[in-house]
């Protein structure tokens, strides 16, 4: 399959959001990545359900929601109601991950599991067939604009191997520090979905930047 690009709204200009939403609608972006932070799981607070609700219908892209919150199970139904299409929970925040992923699917969303940089891919061995997507963090979650952690290439390769071994359909997504330098190696290693925040929204021509990320060959 051709790889997908998911710009992260965290890096948008919230004082002039309409301009960025119009840009996204005209762009080749595949999904809109939405970073939900609670100040507990990560040391930062971003935005939440009312923002998603108000964006639904304004952006013609599936909502790819990255929950960086403790006890995400409490909010699964709320995020469905707010318009989430893909719901990603952190492995580190879910003591009953199997149940959590099942609940997300039962609610009619695609279920993603996210790994922090220190969490090994091998821990997914018994759960990979229950996930529609695995998101590998290539920075420590909580902030945009951080430097890419080089070990991520290796983790993508390991995850690809695990997915093939277990005959899983899960997509491989990478989030953090994705740009024109890191994206080619990630695609070569097996990534299916690239999240890009600062690289897209800080560029002088975001539509062209998204188009260039789409055109990369692995
Ligand atoms: O989940 C995230 C941070 O926790 C963001 O999606 C990620 O950091 C994207 O930002 P950038 O591309 O600027 O690194
Ligand atoms: Co994210």
Automatic annotation (TrEMBL):
Cellular component GO terms, alphabetical = cytoplasm
Q: Do you know which Gene3D superfamilies this protein is assigned to?
A: Aldolase class I (3.20.20.70)
- What reaction is this protein's catalytic activity? D-ribulose 5-phosphate = D-xylulose 5-phosphate
Could you tell me which InterPro entries the record lists for this protein? Aldolase_TIM, Ribul_P_3_epim, Ribul_P_3_epim-like, RibuloseP-bd_barrel
Record key words, sorted: Carbohydrate metabolism, Cobalt, Isomerase, Manganese, Metal-binding, Zinc
Pfam families for the chain = Ribul_P_3_epim (PF00834)
Q: Does the keyword Heme apply?
A: no
Pathway noted in the entry: Carbohydrate degradation
Record's keyword annotation contains Manganese: yes
Cofactor(s) essential for the protein: Fe(2+); Zn(2+); Co(2+); Mn(2+)
Q: Which GO terms describe its biological process?
A: pentose catabolic process; pentose-phosphate shunt
What EC numbers are recorded for this enzyme?
Answer: 5.1.3.1
Molecular function, one GO term: metal ion binding
The record's active-site residues are: 35, 175
Q: Which top class of enzyme applies to this chain?
A: isomerase
Quote the record's binding site residues for a divalent metal cation.
33, 35, 66, 175
Signal sequence residues:
none
Positions binding substrate in this chain are 8, 66, 142-145, 175-177, 197-198
Q: How is the cofactor bound?
A: Binds 1 divalent metal cation per subunit.
The job of this chain, per UniProt, is described as: Catalyzes the reversible epimerization of D-ribulose 5-phosphate to D-xylulose 5-phosphate.
The family line of this record is: Belongs to the ribulose-phosphate 3-epimerase family.
Q: What is this protein called?
A: Ribulose-phosphate 3-epimerase
């Amino acid at each position: 399959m051709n790889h997908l690009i998911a710009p992260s709204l965290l890096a948008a200009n919230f004082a002039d959001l309409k301009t960025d939403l119009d840009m996204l609608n005209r762009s080749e972006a595949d999904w809109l990545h939405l970073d939900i932070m609670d100040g507990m799981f990560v040391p930062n607070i971003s935005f939440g359900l009312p923002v998603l609700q108000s964006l639904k219908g304004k952006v013609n892209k599936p909502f790819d929601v990255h929950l960086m919150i403790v006890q995400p199970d409490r909010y699964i139904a709320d995020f469905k109601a707010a318009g989430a299409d893909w719901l990603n929970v952190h492995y580190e925040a879910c003591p009953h991950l199997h149940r959590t992923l099942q609940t997300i699917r039962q609610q009619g969303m695609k279920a993603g599991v996210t790994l922090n940089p220190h969490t090994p891919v091998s821990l997914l061995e018994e759960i990979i067939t229950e996930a529609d997507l695995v998101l590998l963090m290539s920075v420590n979650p909580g902030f945009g604009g951080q430097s890419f952690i080089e070990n991520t290439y290796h983790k993508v390769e390991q995850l690809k191997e695990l997915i093939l071994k277990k005959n899983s359909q899960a997509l491989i997504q990478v989030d953090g520090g994705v740009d024109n330098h890191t994206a080619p190696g990630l695609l070569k290693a097996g990534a299916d979905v690239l999240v890009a925040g600062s690289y897209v929204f800080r560029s002088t021509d975001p539509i062209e930047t998204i188009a260039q990320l789409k055109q990369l060959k692995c």
